[in-house]
Amino acid sequence: MSVFVIDRKKRPLMPCSWKRAKKLMASGRARVDRIYPFTIRLVDRLVEDSALQPIVCKTDPGSTVTGIALVREGDAGEHVVLCLFELAHRGRQISEDMTQRAGQRRRRRSPNLRYRQPRFNNRRKPEGWLPPSLQHRVDTTETWIKRLRKLVPITSIEMELVRFDMQKMENPEISGVEYQRGELAGYEAREYLLEKWHRRCAYCDAQNVPLEIEHIVSQSRGGSHRLSNLTLSCRPCNQKKGNQRIEDFLAGDVGRLDRIRAQAKAPLKDAAAVNSTRWALFRALEATGLPVQTFSGGRTKFNRTRLEIPKSHALDAACVGDFSILDGWQRPVLRAVCTGRGAYKRTRLDKYGFPRGYLMRKKQVNGFATGDMVKARVPTGRHKGVHTGRVAVRASGWFGITTSKGKLDGVSWKHLQLVQKNDGYGYFFTPTRS
Q1: Which of 144, 221, 232, 392 has the most CB within a 10 Å radius?
Q2: C-alpha 233, offset from chain centre
Q3: Does the pLDDT of residue 233 top 80, yes or no?
Q4: Which position has the higher pLDDT, 353 or 135?
C-alpha cells in the first residue's frame, strides 16, 4: 500500500512508496500526520510546487463489504493500483439494535398505557428515504470517499452499478403480466450462484475448478429452473449424481444435505440491499462535484477474468471501468471495519432486558475516550513495557488497553500517549492472493 502525502497546509499530493516516505521522515522533511491510513505531511512543500497526475477512485458497492481502489491513470489504457481498501458495513447490527430497542420501548409502554392515541397517521417519510441499516451503507461509503479526497488528489469516480432482478433469478422463464405482478429485481443467474455458493462445489467443496449449474431436483424428476433449485457442482460430482434424488446421493452425509437445503432457500437479503441503495449512493457521489461514471458487473467480471486477477471486494473495485492493463494489484488490502463511536444508551442490559450496569454520562476521561488508539509506556508493575492498542476508559483513571497480544487492565492514564482518536473504524491489513 502506498503512503499518502499532504503538503504543509494539509492539501493532498501524489502518494509515494514506503521507502520514499522513510527517507523524507529521516531527513526531517516530513512528519507523521495519521496512522490509518498512513499519511505523512511535508513541511517544506506546497501543492503549487508539485506535479499531480489523474487518480480515479473506483468502488464496488456491496451489502456487507464495499471495495474501494485508488488507481493512477497511465498512457494507452494502463492503470496502476495505488491503494486497496475494504469497507465492512454494520447494517445488520443496526437492524438488530433497532429491533431490540423497539421491543424494549413496547415493553415499557404496555403496562403503563392502556390506550395510546395512534401517532403514525401524521408521519410521512421524505422522498428517497431509506431504512437506517441501508442508509448506513450509503453514508459510510460516501464518508470514506470524502476522507480519501483530503489525502489524495482524486479527479474522478468510477462505480459498479449492479441491478439484481430477484424475480428473474427466482424464475428465469417468467414474462409478460406475470413479471409485472411479481417481485422486481436482474443479475445473471450464474454470477449470483457463484456468490451464493461461495464459488465452490456444493457436493465436494472443490475450488478453483470449472463449476457447472446443477439442478438439486433434476428436470427429469420435475425440477424447475427456479434459483432455489439450482446450485453449483464440479463435473465429476455432476455426472456422478445424474438424476438421483439428492437424499439418495448424500445418504451418507446428512450434514451436507441439511446445509445444501438451507443454503438453497436462503433469502435474497444482500441482493435487496444493493438494489435499494445503488441509486442513493450514485446521487451521493454525484454531490461530491467529481465526474462519476458507472459500469456493469459484467464489465468488472470480464476485466478480472481477462487479466486472471483473484476474486475479492477490493480487486473487484480495481477491475471496474474500461482499461487494458492493470498493474500493482498484488498489494495488501487495508480493511476498515465499521464499529461506531459508541452508543447513546447509558444502561447495559442482560439477556432478559433488565439493567446490569450503567455507563458514565461523559465519554472522555482525562482527554481519552473509549476506542482511541494509544501508546502506553508503563515503567513498573506486571504490565511494564511499551504497548500500543485501543483504550477503554474508566472514571477512576485506570484504563484497559486491548493490544494485538491481549488485554491489559489497570493502566494509569498518566502513562498513555494519544496516537489517533477513535474515528469509528477498526483497521487491519489482509494480504492479496496471487
Answers
A1: 232
A2: 28
A3: yes
A4: 135
Q: Which three cell numbers stand for residue 11?
A: 492539501
Torsion of CA 236, 242, 245, 246, to 10 degrees: 20
Secondary element (H or E) of residue 180:
helix 176-181
Compute the distance between CA of residue 434 and CA of residue 432 in angstroms, rounded to an integer: 6
Please give the class, per CATH, of domain 53-103+131-163+274-338. Answer: alpha beta
pLDDT value of position 164: 53
- Spell out the domain ranges in the chain: 1-50, 53-103+131-163+274-338, 166-267, 361-430
CATH architecture observed for domain 361-430: Roll (2.30)
Cα(39)–Cα(31) distance, rounded to whole angstroms? 9
What pLDDT, on the 0 to 100 scale, is given for residue 38? 92
Cα 184 to Cα 272: distance, rounded to the nearest angstrom = 10
For 7-34, the pLDDT digits (tens) are 999 999 999 999 999 999 999 999 999 8
DSSP secondary structure code for residue 413 in this structure: G
- Give me the half-sphere count of Cα atoms (radius 13 Å) on the Cβ side of residue 103: 10
Looking at the DSSP assignment, which residues form a beta bridge with residue 180?
Answer: none
* DSSP strand pairing (55-60 vs 154-160): parallel
Cell of 234: 464440479
CA dist., res. 241 & res. 216, Å (int): 10
Other beta carbons within 10 Å of 110: 10
Question: Would you say residue 353 has pLDDT above 60?
Answer: yes
Assigned CATH for 166-267: 1.10.30
Task: Tell me 196's DSSP state.
Answer: H
* pLDDT above 90: residue 273: no
DSSP of 297-366: HHHHHHHHHHTTPPP-HHHHHHT-SS-SEEE---S-EEEEEE--S--S--EEE-TTS-EEEE--S-SEET
Q: What is the pLDDT of residue 114?
A: 63
